[in-house]
């Protein structure tokens, strides 16, 4: 199973050889933060036509606005000057429509006690995006003029649709 | 300031028109999870030569293995069958070499009380990657055969170097 390691190692080697963006500043040029799911079918950089240096990208299981996302967005806005947050969930998300009990049962079947872990699944995709937008907008850690937009990405069509606040 | 929104909206439109990967399964084809920083100068998909559907990608401020990263990697391994974790920090990271007091002082100067927030900065980059690898390897939530590798990406040369455990 060393296949993957050598494959990505060789890709990284080729990437370095072609690399010519070594003088980009730390603050994102578009003053944008994209928050999305870890899902393998999402490439936020290609989707939103971003160039290297344009935007911070945050990703976790479910595109949930967790404490860690809030910490990261706060660092991004306060220390690195971003002012727009694009929160994007997606169709066919494994965290949607399940419960903590479902997830814990899967761990229990593998002999792992996960009874005290909140996996942060959610019943409804659109509701989850709205809750995330509300949490970001209400946070005292973010500047008042931060502009939060929500989307759902359809992994079957490659199309995004906007979610109203 | 609606510029960014219309620009990324138009990019997403073009992306959907060219999209032809609508039948990818949810489990990542390479059984890989990449954990890296939100930094705008990193594109893990291009860097590691990943295709759509290949790998989960987790990103936060600092590539720190937080509770949220652990939650997400646990979901990835248990529910979606991944078995390799690539943890990658990077040079010139804004979270390296600073303290919580430094970050809190920046918030205080903007009139925001962040005295109870742990921003998870770290004194040393390589140490942070090692600590993250150790936390992942020691977690009872991850399968015993999970294979964790660590890297540091140089944002000025585009080159990765491996960090030993």
- Tell me the series of helices and strands of chain A, N- to C-terminal: HEHEHEHHEE
Largest sheet strand order of chain A: 2-1-3-4-5
Superfamily (CATH H level) name of chain A: Carbonic anhydrase
Shape of chain A: globular
Most extensive interface, residues per chain?
Answer: A-B, 86 and 86 residues
**Structural class category of chain A:** alpha/beta
CATH class of chain A: Alpha Beta
Oligomer: homodimer
What is the mean predicted local confidence, pLDDT of chain A? 97
What is the domain total for the residues of chain A? 1
Helical segment count of chain A = 5
Percentage of β-strand residues of chain A: 15-25%
Task: Write the topology of this structure.
2 copies of one chain form a homodimer.
Chain A: H1 3-18, E1 32-37, H2 44-47, E2 55-60, H3 67-80, E3 84-90, H4 100-109, H5 125-138, E4 147-154, E5 159-163
Parallel strand pairs in A: 1-2, 1-3, 3-4
Antiparallel strand pairs in A: 4-5
Structural account:
The structure is a homodimer of 165-residue chains. Chain A is of the alpha/beta class and 165 residues long. The first copy, chain A, has one domain (24-163): 3-Layer(aba) Sandwich (Beta-carbonic Anhydrase, Chain A). Chain A has 5 helices and 5 strands. Chain A has helices at 3-18, 44-47, 67-80, 100-109, 125-138; strands at residues 32-37, 55-60, 84-90, 147-154, 159-163. A 5-stranded mixed beta sheet of chain A has the order 2-1-3-4-5, covered by helices on one side. Chain A starts with a helix and ends with a strand. At the A-B interface, helix 1, helix 2, strand 2, helix 3 and helix 4 of A face helix 1, helix 2, strand 2, helix 3 and helix 4 of B.
């Amino acid at each position: 199973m060393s296949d993957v390691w050598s494959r990505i190692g060789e890709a990284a080697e080729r990437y370095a050889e072609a690399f010519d963006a070594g003088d980009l500043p730390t603050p994102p040029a578009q003053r944008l933060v994209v928050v999305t799911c870890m899902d393998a079918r999402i490439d936020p950089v290609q989707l939103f036509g971003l160039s290297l240096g344009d935007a911070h990208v945050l990703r976790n299981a479910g595109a949930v606005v967790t404490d860690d996302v809030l910490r990261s967005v706060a660092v991004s806005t306060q220390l690195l000057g971003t002012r727009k947050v694009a929160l994007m969930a997606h169709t066919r998300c494994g965290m949607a429509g399940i419960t903590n009990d479902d997830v814990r049962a899967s761990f229990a079947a593998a002999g792992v006690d996960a009874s005290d872990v909140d996996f942060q699944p959610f019943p409804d995709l659109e509701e989850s995006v709205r809750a995330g937008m509300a949490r970001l907008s209400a946070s005292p850690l973010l500047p008042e003029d931060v502009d939060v937009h929500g989307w759902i990405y359809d992994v079957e069509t490659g199309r995004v649709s906007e979610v109203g606040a």
